[in-house]
Amino acid sequence: MKELNKTYSPKDFEGRIYAEWEEKGYFRAVVDKSKKPYCIVIPPPNITGQLHSGHALNNTLQDILIRWKRMQGYSTLWLPGTDHASIATEAKIVESMKADGVTKEDIGRDGFLKRAWEWKRIYGGTIVQQLKKLGSSCDWERERFTLDEGCSAAVQKVFIDLYNEGLIYRGERVINWCPNCRTSISDIECEYEEKDGFFWHIKYPLADGAGQVDFIEVATTRPETMLGDTAVAVHPEDDRYKHLIGKMLLLPLTGREIPVIADEYVDKDFGTGAVKITPAHDPNDFEVGMRHQLPLVNVMDDSAVINAENGGKYAGLERYAARKAIVADLEAEGLLVKVEPHKHNVGGCQRCGVVVEPRASLQWFVSMNHPEKSLSVPAMEVVRDGRLHWAAKRFENVYMQWMENIRDWCVSRQLWWGHRIPAYYCLNSGCEHVTVTETAPEACPKCGAKVVQDEDTLDTWFSSALWPFSTLGFPEKTPELEYFYPTNVIVTGYDIIPFWVARMIFTGLKFMDDVPYRDVFIHGLVRDEQGRKMSKSLGNGIDPLDVIDKYGADALRMTMVFGVSQDSDVRWSENKVTASRNFANKLWNAARFIQMKIDGQLTIDNGQLTVALESESLQIEDKWVLSKFNRLVREVTANLDGYDLGVAAGKVHDFIWGVYCDWYIELVKSRTDSIPVLLYVMDGMLKLLHPFMPFITEEIWQAMPRVSVLGCDYDPPESIMVSRFPEYSEHLDFAEAEADFDKVVELISAIRARRSEMNVPPGKRVSLKIEAADLRLFESSADFFEKLAGCINLEVGETVIPPEDSVIIVTPSARAFLPMGELIDKAKEIERLEKELDKARKDVEFISKKLSNTGFVTKAPAQQVENERAKLAKAQEKLSGIEKSLEGFRK
RNA sequence: GGGAGAUUAGCUCAGCUGGGAGAGCAUCCGCCUUACAAGCGGGAGGUCAUAGGUUCGAGCCCUAUAUCUCCCACCA
Length: 891
Description:
By secondary structure, the chain is of the alpha/beta class.
């Protein structure tokens, strides 16, 4: 048996233990049909990433579930991997190339990809090493990467199948364009922020202008887009403009003629009631343009610089410079009516924050609401029929609301780092046939001309959407896929419900014909002490590795889970970490205590100590702790089942500290025959705690001898990781003993409180007389009153004559007398007792009142009424105890 | 504009299907009691945001109001 160090120093063993686990292959998952499968796929961190607080939280929660299920005997697989994170990684590599003075264009696609893979080789493994420090029990032999061969095959298969079904199409639409990243982004990658802007009112003169009204006034927040205007729209019922519908206007600064059209889309009461229509630069205008067959006039290039094609004299100007120039020119021409300040929401790129430019372009889309083959409808049905269960209702609502309003998903990106779209275009301008296929065709299957592959790659979330089955072998029909799919639960933050969770659900249903996971366990974000999001720009983030270094991985994990509830974010504070570390220290010392106690008392045979724990040999305090432990097991398991991980952790913590250490150890300190119970409960607590604090529990567990309980042989595995999670046992249900001994605990607490209030020196021994109905209970507890309450010479009787000058302590089950001689101020004692009497009377009155309320007695559940009666009895006993005591005093 | 959540001790948060308000930290008092001062024992501290309502009974359910947070939409 290994002796535990005097101080708890996690650094000394966390690394060593993790290496042992890995070496012994405990993380390895096997397809074992004799066991039930339990599988979680990791939310793959970006290869660009460094472990941050969010990862720490996310992976702690997954590891808790996986370790718990593994101990319950499931065949568990926690499948790890990383995400290529196309846009983020590409940006990072471009940035790193700057140092060498090289651009993407300089080195070309192949050169760039070579660099990217090299970059991945060097940095891609960092986060994996960091996850190991946390204690994550992933099956590293199955580690995957969204851009590896298998995942790429899955992406191809899915893309091609969806295309063939008509669920992926290519089309020209107004999409969100990031002029900085120079790629399209999806709707959800566009983040809106309210900004102060202006509303420019501009005159658009009539082409054949004459008479009173010779112009229409329009208002815009983006005047530069007027270069691309192809109409002005008014409401068909708007009397101000009715007569102008169909007339032509002269688009200022360009001289182009554009029509006045009527469309219901226009709100008569907003602005001037006339809207400039720029189909190429506004999604709503695009729709209007479609209805009226308006031409698309794209005025910007991919950096949001005004193009030569349609920009006229503004060509070459960056969009905001163009805006300035255009406004100035309009003013010079007397066409600028007014400029109003205007607050409006402006969309920014999620990646870089640059204001996105809505822009018509040819892109690939996943059709979400196909009339016959809708992807969104089944994804909602599985929630409604219960096949997919959200652990927290409120996030289910978020999901459903999002799914109901879903629009087609723009999946093509003008990037190089990612899955290249498997579409090939015929170069024969008369043919223009598109071939979507796995392997590049030699020539156009239709006309035989040369073909060229689409330059674009797919949204990084496209491959993430397939993660739960691509990592298990799809499109192959592997044993893993059959055994582990659907996975059991996905654990992730609420911020990526639309990006990831929703998309996994509809792709899983489409390609695997089943949900990707049964449960969705959503957690919050980690915030700083002031409740702010942790971010690089604020510099308020914590580095989990620093925390591990300083306090240990167990303390970090416990901090994460202790504050977590399904509904809220976790607020980080160093205080919480120290509290967790202190808890670990407490446990460590309890274990050390046991080791010292065992020393010399028992011979350990080959590291094994088999002590039978038999019911007959148990003392009341043993039964008391076993009974409480047994209930703890049941509750903790139920909490874990319901994904209330924070509650479960709290209960284990409270038991270890508040029951086992504070009471049980103190109670049995001097007993040697308590060792089996001490060991048994320690063993069980360690197991309950192991999923939360894997390292310290392993270190201690291996340093403890094994104990068998109630005749059951103990099968000692070599690691707590693969030991059996405790189960509730009827043999350990000692309700009566527990309730009885609670009375002793209650009286000890009361005596301590009184002593403390009266400033009795802790070391001072006082003799004690107890008046109680249950003589044996208190008589047999003499030792406890001495050790824990400093009371000696215990006498117990059914009726006791109060000694001179004694303090009287009353609980519902007993009266205790402590003669304290000169320490007693009789008058004060009477005063105190009178106060207590008053309170006791009120108690009795309160409960009696309730019980004499016919409404209560007739309407409340019988059990409730019963409880109140029991309470009343207790209160009455206490009251009479105080009354008696006061009487004695007054004599 | 629509929706969700929050509001409980100085701080961070628990409080299960309604049945006399809890923990940790901080604070105060007393203790180095040989497992643990990263500790032990004890105390103080709350008209559970506000106003109504339902009920025998409301921190919990309903309706308004206030403040905060977040999500969705994006009338140019």
